[in-house]
Amino acid sequence: MPIETESPEEMGYQTIRYNLAESSVRDRVLGELGVDLSGVVLAYGEHRGILGLRQQIAAESPELSPEDVLVTTGAAMALFVIATTLLDKNDHLVVIRPNYATNIETPRAIGCEMSIIDLSFDQNWGLDIQKIESALQPNTKIISLTNPHNPTGTLFPQTTIDAIIQLAEKHDCKVVLDETYRDLNFQTDLRPYGAALSERVISVCSLSKAFGVPGIRLGWLICKDKALMHTLLAAKEQMILGNSVLDEEIGLFLLKQKTTFLVPIHTHIRQNFEVFKKWMLAQPFLEWVEPQAGVVCFPRVKAAYGFDFEKFKTVLYDTHATMLGYGHWFEQSERHFRMGFGYPSTEDLSAGLACVEAALAVSVYKI
């Protein structure tokens, strides 16, 4: 069944005035990029992705080469290729939750066994290495993580990632590290790709979240395991053969000027984050674990209050034309919702937060 029927693109952007559901920065208009596509030959592209683009991606880590990169139609396709290549019904995977739906729904469709490691608000969404190790089985093929984490905005310490890589090396499995938000580490330095650290890691990333270009559908996976990369390429070829050459040229253009594009984006995020943080700290009904990276967080209604979710959702959308990402999107309680602070202008963020506050006022009650 469709898993994003409540997404802004399905509900209709024209019906939403204050979009706090988005997990990315503001969408760009092609003309503002200044990219010239007039000389692009509309032929089949290189199946791995054009060399220049793969070189640009690999250049961020000296341990990586262009042969370690496979360009895909968005990060979602990279995750699908990985799952359908590495897993069958006789295999096992360990995956954290909450999570991006593809990381859970595709293994479910395959029918493999899953051990879900639930992160806890009360533990600051921290990752318990012992729980992951205890969940590993002889037929475990994948440990699946997202870092920075969606929907909480948590950034797991590098020591935690290193410990998980050591588990994968010990137990002969792969770590799938969804790093889609890595370029939105607006408070810390950019980390190296996990795949640069070990052949056991498959890193996944895209341009959608950080650059505001989800419409070009461009992502990639990175892995230094040459034999596995050959199989992943074969899987991609059976799906789409190659990507859109126009998308790849735009992606190459953006990555060549990465700093130029990201500096103002980070400035905007920091400004919005301060507005959002001030609002959150003044909330009587909500509590949060402050996010460390990305453009989302995952607050919840305090336990001292009752909460009429359906009323809240209806008032927020029908009366205030405002949208959030709801807990059931991530198999979590309706007391949780994902709130994005990177997509709207600062003025729209403030107005949207006022709408959320108004909807809470009529749907939260003392127990």
List the helices and strands and how they pair.
Layout (H helix, E strand, L loop, with lengths): L7 H4 L6 E2 L10 H4 L17 H8 L10 E4 L1 H13 L5 E6 L4 H9 L2 E6 L10 H7 L4 E7 L11 H14 L2 E5 L22 E6 L1 H4 L7 E4 L3 H14 L5 H12 L1 H24 L4 E2 L8 E2 L2 E2 L3 E3 L1 H11 L2 E2 L1 E2 L10 E4 L5 H16 L2 E3 L1
Parallel strand pairs: 1-13, 3-4, 3-5, 5-6, 6-7
Antiparallel strand pairs: 2-8, 7-8, 9-11, 10-15, 12-16, 14-15
Helix pairs in contact: 3-10, 4-5, 4-9, 11-13, 12-13
SS-based class: alpha/beta
How far is the N terminus from the C terminus? 36 Å
Record field, number of beta strands = 16
User: Segments where pLDDT lies below 50 for 5+ residues?
Assistant: none
Helix content: 25-40%
Tertiary shape:
globular
